[in-house]
Amino acid sequence: MKVTFLGTGTSMGVPTAGNYSYHPETGDPRDERLRCSVWIQTETHSILIDVGPDFRTQTLRSGLKEVDALFLTHEHIDHIGGLDDLRPFVFKRDAPIPVWLTEECKESVTRRFNYMFGEDSVSGSVRLDFTIATEPFMLGETTVTPLPAKHGEMKVLGYRFDDFCYLTDINHVPDSTIALMRGAKHVVLGALRWEPKHRTHFTISETLEIARKIDAEHTWLVHMSSKIVHESANSRLPERVKLAYDQMILSL
């Protein structure tokens, strides 16, 4: 399995448009972050988790040419805003792309992108085949396990693919989900900033508590704000916890 981080930044990206939030000019490309998404390549499938507004740019950077399956974590626009850019991948497949998501996310997607679905559908638009993700299942030879959590009051999903777990945009992870993640070699968790506390996102310190409970061989942080500087933040983190960065590749 090969995992490529397409983006590791917050909903506004890093740096933000209009210089809204302070962003130190470090000269380190790891301090520039597109919206969160990962590309997973198994022996049988090219898998995408989330498809944000930067998706087209991310595909060109990474060389992503096929999408066999899409997993959505939740319905915020930084995670679904690139759905229309799936059109060329649907055209190449000449078939709908299978999508796993929550019931709430499905309702939001079909309402906000109504031109893709039902009586409102427009010829040549994206075709998606939805499945509500509730139980583990096999995707080719890979075991996929949904990982329920909370993002404020919103229900969100992470996903485990064999020894790889991905769970971003969180401020509560139940013990039952932590149990599902134990034993994974690589775990990805959302961590917005050092401080102050946020009402819908974990701070880095709060994420470290979850990482300690999971006790994976490697924990990678994503969804960092513009105030997080890669090199200095890594120096403050435990040995088995590090920041991910755009275009970083893991080989499992």
The unreliable regions are: none
The largest sheet has its strands arranged as: 6-5-4-3-2-1-14
CATH superfamily: Ribonuclease Z/Hydroxyacylglutathione hydrolase-like
State the end-to-end distance: 5 Å
| Classification by helices and strands | alpha/beta
> What's the CATH first level?
Alpha Beta
Mean pLDDT: 96
CATH-defined topology: Metallo-beta-lactamase, Chain A
CATH architecture: 4-Layer Sandwich
Number of strands: 14
Global shape: globular
Largest sheet data: 7 strands, mixed
**How do the SSEs run, as a string of H and E?**
EEEHEHHEHEEEEEHEHEHEE
Describe what this molecule looks like in 3D.
The protein has one domain (2-17, 27-249): Ribonuclease Z/Hydroxyacylglutathione hydrolase-like (Metallo-beta-lactamase, Chain A, 4-Layer Sandwich), CATH 3.60.15. The protein is globular and about 50 Å long. The protein is built from seven helices and 14 strands. A hairpin with a 2-residue loop joins strand 8 (142-151) and strand 9. The termini are close together. It has 252 residues and is α/β, with parallel strands linked by helices.
